[in-house]
Amino acid sequence: MYSDPNMEASARLVAAAREENAKRNPPRMTAEEKEQLLKTYHPDYREEEFEFLQAGPNKGEKVPKELAALLQGRSRIDPKDIDLSQPDYDTDVLVIGGGGAGASAAIEADQAGAKVLVVTKLRMGDANTMMAEGGIQAADKPNDSPAQHFLDAYGGGHFAAQKDLLAKLVTDAPEAIQWLSSLGVEFDKAPDGTMITTHGGGTSRKRMHAAKDYSGAEIMRTLRDEVINRGITVVDFTAAIELILDDQGRCAGAVLMNMETRELKIARAKTVILATGGAGRLHYQGFPTSNHYGATADGLVLGYRAGAKLLYPDTLQYHPTGAAFPAQIFGALVTEKVRSVGAMLINAKGEAFMNPLETRDVSAAAIIRECSDRGNGVKTPAGYAVWLDTPMIELKHGEGTIEKRIPAMMRMFGKYGIDIRKEPILVYPTLHYQNGGLKITVDGQSTVENLFVAGEAVGGIHGRNRLMGNSLLDIIVFGRNAGQQAAAKAKDVTCGALSLEHVNKFHHMLEEAAVDTGKVSPRLLPTYNSLGKEF
Amino acid sequence: MEQMVNVYLYGKRYSVPASATIMEAMEYAGYTLVRGCGCRNGFCGACATLYRIAGNRELHACLACSTKVEDNMYVATLPFFPLVKAVYDMEKIKPSQQIMMQLYPEIYACVGCNACTKACTQSLNVMQYIAYAQRGEYEKCAEESFDCVMCGVCSSRCPAGISHPQVAMLARRLNGKYLAPICKHLDERVEEIKEGKYEELLKELMAQSPEELRRLYNTREIEA
User: Fold this and answer.
1) What is the DSSP letter of A234?
2) Which of A43, A217, A392, A403 makes the best surface tag, with the fewest CB within 10 Å?
3) Is this structure's pTM higher than 0.90?
4) What is the ipTM of this complex?
5) Same domain, residue pair B159 and B197
6) Are residues A460 and A162 in contact, defined by beta-carbon separation less than 8 angstroms?
7) Do the Cβ atoms of A193 and B21 come within 8 Å?
8) Minimal CA–CA distance to A155: which of B200, B17, B219?
9) Where are the alpha helices (DSSP H) in B34-125?
10) How many domains does chain B have?
């Protein structure tokens, strides 16, 4: 029962139409329809929200305004104040970031015999990985193949993915699931061991593996446990605030900052893996986000300043179903799995206005259209929203399905008095994923030698839109890959003299281009305190 | 005009919007959180918090990110709790009852007070999952503890010094690795890929012209 009479009246229309809607399978849009819809309604197409970079490796290319300010921001340090002659840490492989990609990389580098140091600005496991709910893709069923997986992801990403990276992603996917299983990750299985798999938006085969709707949390806590069991050195509450190069221009460490005391430390490393994650907390275009507190694009800034090239930094993913009500969970992720298991998107009039399993960009754009030009949105305190008809799940699959398959969603809304088994929920797109990032080759290396990148900080694996379940997959496949490659490379590296000259050069370049964004970067944390005090 | 309530953050009074979560209230008061803030949505366990409402003796535990403030709420956060984490090699341990005895012997000192269950921020039956762990029933322990976010509040209330989240973590890993049914189609597919069975198909696809790739994508058959 929604206390707002307008919402309640609309919810009743949804309930009244539920049986009829449940029988329907709204047609998929044609390629032309999708293209037109995206151009008109997807936030990536709002030109005024982007800016052309005036300095650095991607000069002349457009990025979100908020990101431009940071990429072209000034360093938190002045190189002349930093003594690089006595590193506090000396390691083979330095992993920056303690999420799923960083943990996978650390485990593999350790496995390969390298000395590994993980630094993370919050706790180990504080990452978007922890919040991934729906699942992880892998073509391991008889009717499926890596090629089929490739086709879905390549098309869903608008034919822009780096083909070799995507080929590795889909080919290594089953082994990634096997590896996670061997570490003790619990996947949903039938009694005979068959994986229980579902569709995600844009998949042509049911290849979404899940651990209820805690898929990422289950993976992350297991990886974290494994990192600890292996005795890998983890320095938490410590951010990398600048990369260090050596006299040959190769990446050779990082300047670290204790997040609590602000003390600076120097880490020297033969190879470095950036696994710093996404950017949701930059709130592009004012969108709420489903992302972790620390998702502030730090890795992009660090890499860019050191000379690494970005790919597709202008493409973001807005998850179609962010919670739109109540206010306390505004923008929080409502997993796509809710639609995978049978809920449909319904407008204020009770109409199933689209096929619920279109790709994310298309679904988000369609919801924005419904709530704007079509005037079919439900008025909420924060704006407009559409319904996600959760009771339909149990109408289709029987009582108890919600508690078994999407318990986290039941809990999240239950805390605010909404029983998703009985009432539909209100959703609107939320900033979810950074499709672009640092460009890598198939060995995981960026355009800067000995600087590897893994996870959401990478651009190009998914093209211009990522499918559900391919991100958990990418952090495992490319996290492990980066760990293996960086460990192997470290064997042949002797670091030259450490240098921060690239920071001076970058500052000089900004001055030449007369760019002054007034920002220091990396951002590290969003500004949520009422005093507006930046971290 | 937004309705306001009084909350006491570490004993100091602040007036904050009644609709705020405890975490938002702290930020409204001017805090920049470094510790005690993670996913901000109930998954990571960073923001374990204890509170009392003035005039009521009952102590409550919650996650600050997903609990609304109340008038006269006295709040203390628990951003870190020293859990005991036993170190083990997953390849060498076995899902026997003895392994718990070796790694977490304190679970057998449980006095059955149920303080853990009462304190759980996820409303889990914590004492029950510890009982399953004691008996070596790891599948049940894994299922009962599955929604655990490892915030550590249970352990902060335990007179026996049990680190419940870490016990459950071990049980889930044992269950996932050793007790859950083996997935044959997965193992077979991994073998096939290693043998190169799908390489040709993928290479052929990748070599198609952009137009042909578009056609293949737009006309692909979708499993019902």
Assistant:
1) E
2) A403
3) yes
4) 0.97
5) no
6) yes
7) no
8) B219
9) 97-103, 115-119
10) 3
B161–chain A Cβ distance below 8 A for any pair: no
Q: Is residue B124 within 8 angstroms of chain A, CB to CB?
A: no
Clarify whether residues B163 and B199 are in a common domain.
Answer: no
Phi, psi of B4 (to 5 degrees): -115, 155
Q: What is the per-residue burial (b if ≥16 Cβ within 10 Å, else e) of B80-107?
A: ebebebbebebeebebeeebbeebbeeb
Residues B36, B60, single domain; the answer is: yes
Residues 6 or more apart in contact with residue A530 via CB below 8 angstroms: B27, B28, B29, B30
- B9 and B55 part of one domain: yes
Residues of B in contact with A167 (CB under 8 A): 202, 206
Question: What confidence category does residue B2 fall into, taking pLDDT thresholds of 50, 70 and 90?
Answer: confident
| A-B C-beta contacts closer than 8 Å | 227
- Is B219 inside a domain boundary? no
Domain of residue B13, CATH code: 3.10.20.740
Is residue B160 located within the same domain as residue B123? yes
Contact A163 B90 (CB under 8 A): no
Per-window interface: B 191-210 vs A, CB < 8 A: 193, 198-199, 201-202, 204-206, 210
Q: How many helices (H) and strands (E) would you count in chain B?
A: 10, 5
Instruction: Give, in degrees to the nearest 5, the angle at Cα A138 between A135 and A144.
Output: 125
Q: Specify whether B13 is located in the same domain as B72.
A: yes
**Digit-coded pLDDT (tens) for B32-48:** 999 999 999 999 999 99
Domains of chain A: 5-41+317-431 (3.90.700.10), 86-310+439-501 (3.50.50.60)
* pLDDT value of residue B1: 61
Q: From the list B169, B193, B202, which residue is nearest A221 (CB)? A: B169
Could you give the 3-state DSSP secondary structure of residue A17?
Answer: helix
Strand partners, B52: B74
| Same-domain check for residues B110 and B175 | yes
Same domain membership, residue B165 and residue B191: no
Nearest chain A residue to B44 by CA: give it.
Answer: A130
Task: Please tell me which residue in A76, A319, A432, A466 is annotated as part of the active site.
Answer: A319
Range of the domain at B140: 97-179
Q: Compute CA A396 distance to the chain's CA centroid, rounded to the nearest angstrom.
A: 31
Is A42 considered catalytic here?
Answer: no
pLDDT in tens, A62-74: 999 999 999 999 9
Kindly report, residue by residue over A208-225, the tens digit of the pLDDT. Answer: 999 999 999 999 999 999
The answer to whether residue B222 is domain-embedded is no
